[in-house]
Structures are given as structure tokens and as C-alpha cells.
Automatic annotation (TrEMBL):
The species this protein was found in: Candidatus Accumulibacter appositus
Pathway: Amino-acid biosynthesis; L-proline biosynthesis; L-glutamate 5-semialdehyde from L-glutamate: step 2/2
CDD domains, sorted: ALDH_F18-19_ProA-GPR
Lineage: Bacteria, Pseudomonadati, Pseudomonadota, Betaproteobacteria, Candidatus Accumulibacter
Domain annotation Aldehyde dehydrogenase: ranges: 12-280, 310-374
Name of the protein: Gamma-glutamyl phosphate reductase
Listed Pfam families: Aldedh
Gene Ontology BP, a term: L-proline biosynthetic process
Amino acid sequence: MSIEQYIQTVGQQARAASRAMARADSNAKNTALRAIAAAIRREASVLVAANREDLAAAVTAGLEPALLDRLTLSEKGVATMAEGVEQVAALDDPIGEVSDLKYRPSGIQVGRMRVPLGVVGIIYEARPNVTADAAALCLKSGNAAILRGGSEAIRSNRAIAALVHEGLTSAGLPPAAVQVIDTTDRAAVGHLITMREYVDVIVPRGGKGLVSRLLAESRIPMIQHLDGNCHVYIDDHADPEKALQIIENAKTQRYGTCNTAESLLLARSVAGDLLPLIAAMLTDRGVELRGCPETLAIVSTAWPATEEDYAREYLAPIISVKLVAGLDEAIEHINVYGSHHTDAIVSENYTAAMRFLREVDSASVMVNASTRFADGFEYGLGAEIGISTDKIHARGPVGLEGLSCQKWIVLGNGEVRA
């Protein structure tokens, strides 16, 4: 069977399975999810062993540290993955929910019903936990999923997929509701993103190269996310202790995630006191600072920042630093150089915080909290299919609601239009 024939078969099976999933009741879906979570916990050692094989191959292939970090699946990571699936099972099922039902003068009732999207294709790199997260969210929202993970995670993804199929079968649901593309051939992606007859939406989770390719080649609507140049702005009225804690966590907890802070802005009025403390803390943790001329005058170990640095997602222990006059300049800088992903202000001034929330044009905007909280799990979505920086259909962490849409429904009693 050629790659094209294989992907066509996967698409046909997904379309058929999507109809069965749209009919499935909440009990069947939750039974499958709980069985998947139990299987993940039971087979934790098997999953970790498969992941070690992927990691060994990735190291040999010279994969970058940020991607190695995303690829790694520890025992703790397996437990978190299972917990995420259980959280999705515990969420209310949005499918079939009727809202805004109102009588019209004609006598009919008009409202909207939430329904699945149909078949969701997810294309992602490195992270094997996405396989479980995507399967759980698509399952609960009544969709079928076609998952195309990166070649570097093929063994991990196969192992997780086997457990997902076990859970679906135990609940009487079609295993084809979640299919992992079982080839590392890049041509598979090209075929997947043009099958409009079988796939309703594509969700890319990867670097700029992947997303740029899909934007150029896909014939299917996308829920997209390009990159995460996230900012922390320390305002004139910032609490110094909060500022240190937040920037430390936002930048150094993990370097390879899209919600890691890549840019630091400080109001000039507090930079003299705060920047040396922040720079010392970041330098102690191995972070390189690239700053504006004013930053270089305060921090002797900082490197000069270029224009490109302010717009860059490093995914590494590097951060750009710029001093600004105040809130207006900070908001302007973020809206120009940011990626509209996640940005935070540290301030005790209510008016400044509310202006920041209103005027920063990003999917998640935070006050006195680390950007690392921009995550479906932390937002109570159970997991996420991705983080969208689009404005149409879904924005920010995409959970069950983002994987569904609404259709109009009309309830009548024999009414006819005059």
C-alpha cells in the first residue's frame, strides 16, 4: 500500500468512526477515558522504556536540547498524563448542550446545540504526552482523531496508542476513533492536510517550520499557534519579591515550552534596584541576558540585544531585557514584538493591571502570575489540544469547547412561514 493509499484508508476509517463518536453517550466516553487512564498507569514502565528508546535515537540524531526536553517522558510525566485523562473524564460533556433557546413571534423556538467538529487531525513534534491529551479531548468531545506525531517519538506514540485502543474497545467504541499515523514518512503529512473529504480541522503543534509549511500547503482549516515569545513586564508599582519569584519561574522552570518567558520588560523607575537582583538570580541559573543599552549599563554581564532578539522564541536559557518608560511603552512593545501567546504584568496598581489585561493583544494575559500557567491542565481543561494564537473559533488553550461548534436548532409545533 502506498503512503497516499494508507492515509486515504486512515481518513475513511476516521470519518466512519466520527459518526459513531457523535452518537456516543457520556457514559461510554467516560468509561473509555477511565480505562485509558488505568491502562497508562498499569503500563507506566512500558511507556518509559519505549520513551528511552526514542530518546537514545534522538540523542544519536543530534536533536536539540529543547526538543529532547519535550520528548522526555518520566514516570512522573506518565502519572500526570493519566491524571489529565481522568480530569477530562470528570469534565461535563458539552456535546448536545442546548443554549439560548427562545420563542419567536411565529411560535417557533430557536436555539443552538453544541456538536463535535468531526475528524480532527493533529500534527505535532516530540511531545508523546500530546498523544494521550489529544486522544482524551477528541474522544470526550465526540470527535475522531488522526494523530501524526514526530518521527522522534514514534515508539512512545505507538505504545500510548495501543492503550487508547484498549480503552475504546472496552467501552464498545470504535478503535479507529483515535488513529496514530504509523509511518515516519514526511509525505504522510502532505496527504493528510489535503483530505478535505475526511478531515474537518488540522491542529499543528510544533515549531515555526512545521506551522509555516502547513499554512502554505493545507487545504483544511487550522487552529494554529506559531510560537511563544512570552513577556513579563515589571511595573513601577511591582512588589519586588513577587517580581523575582515570577520571573524565576516563568523563565527557568522549563526552557523548552511555549509558555516560558522569553522577554523581560522593566519600568525605568524600578530597574536600578530590581534589575541587578533579577540578573544575579538568572545568571546563577545559567541564563544569558541580552539587553538594551540601558540594561548593559546596569548589568555588566549582559550581551547587546538585536532587533531580532526582542521577537525571538529562544526555547533556551536566554532572555531579552528592555527598560521602558512605563505601562504605555510596555504594552506597545509587547503588541509589536510578541507572538500573542501569553504575557504577564507584575504590579500592585489595579488600574495599570486592568489596562494591561484589556490592551495586550494576546491569548492569555496575566496579573502577578507566571506565564507557565498558560496551559490547559492548569486552566482546568483537563488537558489541551494546543494553544491557539488565532482569534477565530478558538483562542488560548483549546479544550472541549474548542473542539466543538454550535449549530442552530428550531423546535416547532406545525408552524409554517407566512
